[in-house]
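Usage example:
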Amino acid sequence: MDIRAGITELDPGNLSGIMDASRKDIHNSDIPVLCQSCEARHKGMCGVLNSSELLALARSTRMVRHEAGTELAAEAMPVESYANVMRGVVKLSKVLEDGRQQIVGLQFAPDFLGRLFSKENAVTAEAASDVDLCRVPKPALERLIAENPALEHRLMQQTLRELDEAREWMVTLGRKTASEKIASFLYMIATHLDPAATVGRRVFDLPLTRSDIADFLGLTIETVSRQLSKLRAERIVVITGIRHIEIPDLGALKKRCG
Amino acid sequence: MDIRAGITELDPGNLSGIMDASRKDIHNSDIPVLCQSCEARHKGMCGVLNSSELLALARSTRMVRHEAGTELAAEAMPVESYANVMRGVVKLSKVLEDGRQQIVGLQFAPDFLGRLFSKENAVTAEAASDVDLCRVPKPALERLIAENPALEHRLMQQTLRELDEAREWMVTLGRKTASEKIASFLYMIATHLDPAATVGRRVFDLPLTRSDIADFLGLTIETVSRQLSKLRAERIVVITGIRHIEIPDLGALKKRCG
DNA sequence: ATATATCTTTGATCGAAGTCAAGGCGTCAG
DNA sequence: CTGACGCCTTGACTTCGATCAAAGATATAT
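Running the assembly step on the lines above writes:
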């Protein structure tokens, strides 16, 4: 996965605003500035990498910021580096020759990004929102994996989780109505923020445009819009702004998922 | 994955007809009879397991045969064992509460079968054809994986491949027409047998019923039947028997895949 | 060989989602 | 403020695939 397209490389001097929670740590460290901030944000790990692995990669990791819409990696292009999503949402998609597009996965912080052990990307990766990535060159990470089975095991766990999610989504794509697809999408986003609770109120921002939602659900934007309006009319969702969503009762939403 | 349902356990005495290619080896071995036959069939490996790993599991592996239609593992039930598909096709599916079904994967020999490291199955596994499995109890295999990073790496490679396939299929489910879905399905089956060539003649048997194909493609059986008839009328496929398929020109079929 | 059940094909009709078109709303530049 | 642009919503109409229905194959059992 080549994630260099459109990169703004960040150094300790211009990080203000990115890493609010841990900014005070940034200038006082032996391990790479940007990955220490990762650690602060994600319980001692930069995504899948723990402190000692970060140390091993010290010279190689690099934090980069991309704005929404940037293409991070292109289908069928060489994989040159891997990354961890540290902030924001990355969409993975595939396109047919005539331009029809399907989003095949969403990656949230602190997911690992990139098709391991492959010369070519199987999908296109694009920043759905503004995104911060902790980037690692492909050979460096693969060397570390080869000598560190525990790391490969963690990556295996994420891969298995992604496979579960992909299969869950295949049911939605193949067998659900437009209305159920929208409900499933909202439910998925809502529970992703707080996987534990499955009932009660939830307020959040949609990380995707209507067009992205359509590409994710195999629908047109008109159908997405109409079905959202229908769910709003039924008081299943309250749309407080074009992307601000409030779910008064997650249980009621779940009943609409088919 | 509990694969014990409906099992006929096989011993060396009643293997005739199953392992034709390697039957003569069956009675002259120190390693388990049935997995030696696996080896003969799959270049020294029983699916993902190589000879020394088989030796380490000698007491645990067991070859079993299931007839078409047998449920091998049920969604949301405890995983009790893993397996390798040694012959036949296994379909992985998920169902909605109201009975709508979606096939989310197909496993051919010599694929590994079972959701690693999980207490529960994420999918239902069912024998699409008569199937032979080389079964391993969950704890035994997990112990072996823990002390054998190379094995985990091989399983990782299969998992990554399955994820690629699932994402490829999401495009088909979400964005292709019924006609393109059928063409894509036939193309996928045809190339699965011989991944190298992408043009020319191909003759094979469909491993699935019309109903299974419909569940795989997110269609009804009527639509599957109609679109197959349409492709037949256009001489893209020749249907020589209800399951016997001949593709005169794989290139022409590929053009119909969207 | 005949009966029964299952699977598949084909036809007629219906409806959910797509397409085409117009208009609303928020944002940004001038 | 005003106009332009991008994104979203809504309406009118069309179309593809689902549904309902029936008849033709194929397999299994008696």
